[in-house]
From TrEMBL:
UniProt KW Repeat keyword: yes
Alphabetized InterPro entries for the sequence: Cell_wall/Cho-bd_repeat (IPR018337)
Residues spanning the signal sequence: 1-23
UniProt-recorded name of the protein: N-acetylmuramoyl-L-alanine amidase
Cell wall-binding repeat placement: 180-199
Pfam family, any one: Choline_bind_3
Residue ranges of the region described as Disordered: 224-250
Positions with biased composition (Basic and acidic residues): 224-244
Organism expressing this protein natively: Blautia liquoris
Alphabetical UniProt keywords: Repeat, Signal
């Protein structure tokens, strides 16, 4: 009899514990779910606050400083900032976003990420022609209106041009001068120009006594063998240097 009563009491206690834990679990789940819903609601609310309603009746920004014409830069040089300025008289806030385009149009184009000031410095790392413009936005309360600037053409030119002179090749820079007595990287190739500005072809010994071989197109030879002499990855030929030291007349 005692065993049955003990067993019944134990069973009741176990059931009570299970129900209690289930209740706690349910309440905990409800709380977590509720908190998550609250976070989602707050997130949705925040996102909604960031969305502005386009209002055609809101004053559009007026460009007092606009873009025009064409500018040229030699590849790799520092460009001057492009500048626009827009204003409104209704107390709104003016902001900017810059765009680039492959055609002369201030419609479409590609948004330049992070460029949201009234100035922008064009990229000159690649040759070619790009057109730039800015969109100014007037934000007031939860409404917005926009206006687009005119375009400016930016040309990025090669550093210089090849010139033929009596069957010899020279490289003339944009300032009119020629590359002389110097190495020069041009379109991924490595050239040497002598004191007269002529592109070197064939074997060349520099002032330090190192020997190099310039291919028929003027490009420096590397990792190869010419006239029986090995040439390293840096373009130098230790074999040629040793041979010249032993017999300079060869």
């Amino acid at each position: 009899m005692m065993k049955k009563r003990y067993k019944s009491t134990l069973t009741a206690l176990c059931l009570a514990v299970v129900f209690t834990l289930s209740g706690c679990s349910s309440k905990l789940t409800d709380k977590v779910t509720g908190d998550t819903d609250k976070i989602i609601e707050e997130s949705d609310s925040t996102e909604k606050k960031d969305i502005k309603q386009v209002d055609d009746s809101l004053e559009k920004p007026n460009f007092t400083t606009n873009l025009e014409g064409q500018v040229q830069y030699v590849i790799g040089t520092q460009a001057e900032p492009l500048t626009v300025e827009a204003s409104v008289s209704d107390g709104g806030t003016v902001s900017y976003q810059w765009y680039s385009n492959n055609v002369n149009s201030n419609g479409g184009g590609e948004q330049i990420q992070g460029q949201t000031q009234n100035t922008y410095v064009p990229d000159t790392s690649e040759e070619g022609i790009k057109y730039y413009f800015a969109v100014a936005a007037n934000t007031k309360n939860d409404t917005i209106s926009r206006a687009t600037s005119t375009t400016v053409e930016v040309q990025v030119l090669p550093e210089g041009n090849w010139v033929e002179d009596g069957g010899l090749k020279k490289y003339q820079l944009h300032d009119g001068s020629f590359v002389t007595n110097a190495w020069k990287d041009i379109e991924g190739k490595h050239y040497f120009f002598d004191e007269n500005g002529n592109m070197k072809v064939g074997w060349y010994e520099d002032p330090e006594g190192s020997w190099f071989y310039m291919n028929p197109d003027g490009n420096l030879a590397k990792d190869t063998e010419v006239d029986g002499f090995k040439i390293g990855s840096d373009g130098k030929s230790e074999d040629k240097k040793q041979a010249e030291e032993q017999d300079p007349a060869q």
